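User: I'll paste a sequence; please echo it back and then give the predicted structure.

Assistant: Echoing your sequence first, then the prediction.
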Amino acid sequence: MGDKGKGEAANYVIRVHRDPGEIDPAAWNRLLAEQPSPTPFLRHEFLAQLHQSGCAVAETGWAPAFIGLYRGDQLAGAVAAYLKSHSYGEYVFDWAWADAYRRHGLEYYPKLLAAVPFTPVPGSRLLARDAADRRILLRALQSLAAQSGLSSVHLLFPHEDDIEAASAEGWMVRRGVQFHWRNRPGVPYADFGDFIAALQREKRKKIQQERRRVAEAGVGFQIRVGTEITEMDWRFFHHCYSLTYAAHGSSPYLSLEFFLGVGRQLSPHWVMFIALRDGEPLAASLVAIDAERRWAWGRYWGATEHVPCLHFEACYYQPLQWCIAQGYQCFEGGAQGEHKMARGLTPTPTASAHWLAHPQFARAVEDFLAREGQGISAYLDELRERTPFKPGELTSP
């Protein structure tokens, strides 16, 4: 691309990188650390492992097209972007848009996607030092799409600062919902028992029953943090993770090579919960953490056999118990899942931003998003009325 422009403060050059390895890792991570909502998933090590392991490459429908904003030799802005030949692994669903294009004899794919592959985690996407540079990055994405004849650009799970910049550039905003747990503001929960005591009686009773069923099945847990997670643990975890996909008739997005790589390079960001019975492992869940921000993300799990309620124990109760003990502020439960409310997670708005090249389709999608947005707003109101907590219990800062 190599576009040149004049920012308000200095000249800049835009470069498109077809391999994240072309970008200096330290410069990328420094820029990420300056953002309002950095996550481990946008660290250079995570993105580079996705590429090096063959998980997010052109052959799997994820051709890297990372944007770099340079002032002199300095990386002043960046965005992880991909040319996509499908809509798998995104968690913001636009299959209906693609189908509408097809029915009108138009090509929806390839499209340009600014997101973390296979990772529906909200956070900063436009790595920039101010709002002006965020808008430059958005224009660079739009320019790349236009020059390449792409149908559209999509910015998934961005921070609100990114949404504000996208709105200012005329992009369309789409709203969604996830379910997150937040520690009690002011007086954090003392332990897991203190947490469930804040829930309504029927929810508390259900959780106690589910935990009892797992314990009565003879299942206990080992918790391993960072470098305590051995290569054998990673291999067992990936085996369980793959079995879960196989049970649903599909193949996993992420490979053993990927997990071994991020296990080595990003070890401080992982906690593994290993379920054992009679000393033998039978399930594992993986949680990502930011110890500095006291933030955690439930990511992946799997089991070698079915044990009633083990999924809830491994993916929610054990991680929440750990988060409370460590004084964490938030545990994000991942995409979808209204059932998470019964486990003390509450609805949290999410967003994405979209630019479509075709004017008529852009107007049609804008009308659709306006109607959908009203439905999401009403849905959020309904969910909040169905809070699992006792009346008057504070559940968010």
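The chain has a mean pLDDT of 95. The chain is about 35% helix and 25% strand.
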